[in-house]
């Protein structure tokens, strides 16, 4: 897509899953990339592969976005290297499947920091320069889980509802500035997320999972179009619309059946 050609793009959570898929597709479009995640060895391996396959400019800056100081230190490191970020892809995030009391306070604190607070801080720190230049973009990765409260996925679904709401708000605020904002809401995707979250792959909701590549492609198309919200499959749009009209108790019942171990 021409929209991404010669743009410098920061991808968080770039070391696995949808993050890797974003990087491969963006490199094929002629973008320069800034990769961040906790695992430096994976980032360096991905950078070598991207340079070899696409002869693109790739910068690796490891960062732990579960640290409250992480977003600020990441942006300072980017600026110290003289890099101007044209597009931000807030892809970093993780979940936990279990009863609310099964999760530790530390896990929930880290989840809220990565999924919400660091996303807000990266956007707030990088957005002013995009507005000044009159072009740029922010792509936030949420989830279908953000459409309704989900028992046994309670904190994760709440954080992803936050991501949806802030994305819609920014999309409206930034109209006319030249800065695109879009939120991507995937259904189940075949990535490490499922294992890290402790989700049972045998559950009906997690059969026929999408590939990271198909999800990333859908999200990038949404950002290029300045579509405020994109679901990762066309038929999931029906679920999104139903979530707006279905009684909350019905959503709780369906979500609980899908996620209860």
Characterize the structure shown:
49% of the residues lie in helices and 13% in strands. It has helices at residues 17-28, 40-54, 70-80, 105-133, 154-173, 192-197, 212-225, 236-245, 248-259, and strands at 8-12, 32-36, 58-60, 87-90, 136-141, 179-185, 229-231. It has one domain: 3-Layer(aba) Sandwich (Rossmann fold). It starts with 7 loop residues before the first strand and ends with a helix. It is built from nine helices and seven strands, in the order βαβαβαβαβαβααβαα. The chain has 261 residues and is of the alpha/beta class.
Sum this structure up briefly.
This protein has one domain (2-259): Rossmann fold, CATH 3.40.50.720.
Can you say what the CATH homologous superfamily is? NAD(P)-binding Rossmann-like Domain
What would you call the shape? globular
* CATH architectural category: 3-Layer(aba) Sandwich
CATH domain fold name: Rossmann fold
Residue runs with pLDDT of under 50 for 5 or more positions? none
Which terms would index this structure?
261 residues; Rossmann fold; seven-stranded parallel beta sheet; 7 strands; globular
SSE inventory with pairings:
Layout lengths: L7 E5 L4 H12 L3 E5 L3 H15 L3 E3 L9 H11 L6 E4 L14 H29 L2 E6 L12 H20 L5 E7 L6 H6 L14 H14 L3 E3 L4 H10 L2 H12 L2
Parallel strand pairs: 1-2, 1-4, 2-3, 4-5, 5-6, 6-7
Helix pairs in contact: 1-7, 3-4, 4-5
